Automatic annotation (TrEMBL), chain A:
Source taxon at top rank: Bacteria
InterPro entries for the chain: EcsB_ABC (IPR010288)
UniProt entry tagged with the keyword Phosphoprotein: no
Entry GO CC: membrane
Record bears the keyword Metal-binding: no
Membrane-spanning intervals of the chain: 21-47, 62-81, 102-124, 136-156, 168-185, 191-208, 283-303, 348-370, 376-396
Name listed for the protein in its UniProt record: Putative ABC-type exoprotein transport system permease subunit
Keyword terms, alphabetized: Membrane, Transmembrane, Transmembrane helix
Pfam families named in the record: EcsB (PF05975)
From TrEMBL, chain B:
SMART domains per UniProt: AAA
A Pfam family of this chain: ABC_tran
Organism of origin: Baia soyae
SUPFAM superfamilies: P-loop containing nucleoside triphosphate hydrolases
Superkingdom of origin organism: Bacteria
Keywords: ATP-binding, Nucleotide-binding, Transport
ABC transporter domain segment(s): 2-233
Name of this protein: ABC-2 type transport system ATP-binding protein
Keyword Nucleotide-binding annotated: yes
One GO molecular-function entry: ATP hydrolysis activity
Length: 409, 244
């Protein structure tokens, strides 16, 4: 039992060490803190405007109630179960309650931190329009207790392994009870609030009596753990490139259908690279991330020179990253056996990169035009400059790739 | 003809895994490459495929080496690897489309063959699934389907029956037989000696990187001086050191 617990503690420690490294990397980067700073200031201004300009009749309490119900009900138990545990920990199932307890404490801690952040953000809204400061502190106490309760219900739910309609009913029940309790937490009318608390107590007794907790839902927990990890990794990959992390595959059927409809894919590597780009590669995220960042700069800095420098820079940044599509992806070995020359692989890369550079160039001038940072004539010149820069870098990369033995096809 | 002549090679120059191997695979015949784990079977196959460079010797297909005519050489070889290797971002159907596109199959032929293979290997319902949701046997079927979609002149098949269900084993054995009858030369590595006996015309028995026995079962019996031995007994006599 002790060994299990230390394995879990070690796992949590390793995860947080990695996370700290990633956060440090992001914080020490040039662009991200700047963009986040701009976003925070923007958010602050927008929030202030909302508080002062929305009419008093606006149903603030319903908004707060809705947000808190969602936060409390959508809580997730993080089990820390990995694939290999299904082999190595399965025989130690009888010792797993200690594991579950630690994992529960961890999940509860994280859920409470999340709730406190949300409550901190909601405080001005509550204070100005809904209740007093002392009522707010009372509500916080009740909501934190409620968060622990919803998490415990989630763990019980995992053990019950409900399927189909009974699962939907169970979910509806949890959301309903939580919504009811959040309402009473925000509107504490003493005796009614106390009566409302009877509901989770009765529900908990019933759950405790009817749920068998001796068997762990191994598969469910392993799947959830993997999903939680992917979610954090994909969030981090917005800001830094995470090497060695296998990205989750996104189906993106509609986008693939769109590409199939509008591009020629007779060449095998054109066919392959489009799918790799859209479903697996972080370059797809790079595409829209660069577009969003450039747009944010254009919106937040009201000078024409920003558009003239940022948009060509954005095109350059994107095209410079594109060779990774054929050099760094891990394509299976047997595809090297295809009777297709490396030259054709490079040609496919050029076709895709050119298409994306044209599209990005076009998307990048929309905001300068819409914000009237440039005139129509200037927009066309800017578009041509962007495309020319893109094509120049593509040509340079093509020569490099053609001479390189790194072309991984 | 696929000809392997005096090949010495491996993963490092200083310690070769295979030593001076020579054998041939003619069109319309199946040659079984048999040996223990680590004997050098997969290494030999990787040399034939050009995934490893030989220290010495040469490998030719119809007289040409890989470096002389790379596209022609590659278009004549189909490969089923021991471990399923696939693109996690492509569905089963997209793997087939990609293979068809690489080997230049027409749409009509592709659809006809692909549908038939999917049915034969009971993979129709999985056509739009991503392979990381497949069982190991199903993943191996992707390799088989992709290889049999093409009409290569030579097939290199590495432990193809591992992880397959009984129906798939029968279907694969039948397909290999049909291909052989159509004139395809097949080099197959397997531990399942009963299956090898059914499928193969000749054998190359490798032990510690050297050819210990080779030829038809009769020829191997006379080489081993055991006139009534089965393939199994011959194999055991080699690997247990009765004969080197």
């Amino acid at each position: 039992m002790k060994q299990n617990k230390s394995l879990l503690q070690q796992r949590i420690h390793t995860t947080w060490t990695k996370a700290t490294r990633i956060i440090t990397l992001i914080a020490s980067g040039g662009g991200t803190p700047l963009v986040l700073g701009i976003l925070l200031i923007g958010f602050y201004i927008a929030y202030q405007t909302l508080l002062t300009e929305l009419p008093a009749t606006f149903p603030f309490d319903w908004v707060v109630w809705g947000i808190l119900t969602y936060i409390l009900s959508s809580v997730e138990f993080r089990p820390w179960i990995e694939k290999a545990d299904l082999v190595f920990l399965l025989p130690l199932e009888h010792t797993m309650p200690a594991w579950r307890k630690t994992a529960f404490l961890y999940s509860a801690g994280m859920a409470m931190v999340r709730l406190i952040v949300v409550l901190f953000l909601l405080y001005p809204l509550y204070r100005v329009r809904i209740g007093t400061s002392s009522e707010w502190w009372m509500a916080i106490g009740m909501l934190l207790a409620l968060q622990i309760w919803t998490l415990w219900v989630r763990v019980m739910e995992d053990h019950r392994r409900l399927q189909g309609y009974s699962r939907v009913l169970d979910q509806a029940c949890l959301w309903g009870v939580t919504a009811f309790l959040v309402f009473w937490s925000l509107h504490p009318y003493q005796i009614y609030t106390l009566l409302a608390l009877l509901l989770p107590i009765v529900h908990s007794i019933w759950l405790y009596k009817t749920t068998k907790t001796s068997q762990m839902p191994w598969m469910l927990w392993q799947k959830r753990e993997s999903l939680i990890r992917h979610r954090w990794q994909s969030l981090a990959s917005w800001f830094v490139e995470l090497r060695g992390v296998e990205p989750p595959i996104k189906k993106r059927t509609w986008l693939i259908a769109l590409i199939k409809r509008f591009t020629t894919q007779k060449e095998p590597f054109t066919y392959l690279y489009w799918r790799t780009l859209i479903r697996r590669s972080d370059l797809f995220a790079s595409f829209y991330r660069i577009w969003i960042w450039a747009t944010l700069f254009v919106v937040s800095l009201p000078y024409p020179w920003v558009s003239w420098t940022i948009t060509p820079l954005a095109i350059g940044l994107f095209v410079l990253q594109m060779p990774r599509l054929i050099t760094q992806q891990t394509y299976p070995l047997w595809v090297k056996l295809y009777p297709v020359s490396p030259g054709r692989a490079v040609h496919s890369w050029v076709t895709i990169t050119r298409t994306l550079a044209f599209l990005l160039g076009f998307l990048l001038i929309i905001m300068p035009l819409a914000m009237q940072r440039v005139s129509y004539a200037e927009a066309i010149i800017l578009l041509l400059i962007n495309w020319a820069i893109g094509l120049l870098i593509i040509g340079w990369n093509k020569r490099k790739l053609s001479q390189s033995s790194q072309v991984n096809r | 003809m696929l000809a392997i002549q005096n090949i010495t090679g491996g993963y490092s120059r200083t310690s070769p895994v295979i030593h001076n191997l020579s054998f041939q695979v003619k069109p319309g015949e199946t040659v079984g490459l048999i040996g223990l784990n680590g004997a050098g079977k997969s290494t030999t196959m990787k040399h034939i495929l050009g995934l490893l460079n030989a220290h010495s010797g040469s490998i030719t297909i119809d007289g040409s080496t890989l470096s002389e005519q790379p596209e022609d050489f590659r278009s004549k070889i189909g490969y089923i690897p021991e471990m399923p290797l696939f693109y996690p971002e492509l569905t089963l159907w997209e793997h087939l489309e990609l293979t068809a596109s690489a080997y230049g199959l027409s749409d009509e032929i592709f659809h006809k063959r692909a549908e038939q293979l999917l049915k034969q290997f009971q993979m129709e319902r999985a056509r739009n699934w991503f392979p990381d949701t497949f069982s190991k046997g199903m993943q191996q079927k992707i390799m088989i389907l992709c290889t049999f979609l093409t009409e290569c002149k030579y097939l290199i098949v590495d432990e193809p029956f591992v992880g397959l269900d009984p129906i798939a084993i029968d279907e694969l054995a039948m397909l290999l037989q049909q291909r052989k009858e159509k004139g395809t030369g097949i080099l197959i590595s397997t531990h399942i000696l009963d299956m090898a006996e059914k499928l193969c015309d000749r054998y190359v028995c490798i032990h510690q990187g050297n050819i210990a026995l080779s030829g038809t079962i009769q020829e191997m019996r006379s080489q081993a001086e055991r006139p009534h031995a089965t393939l199994h007994e011959l194999f055991l006599s080699v690997v247990k050191g009765d004969r080197r």
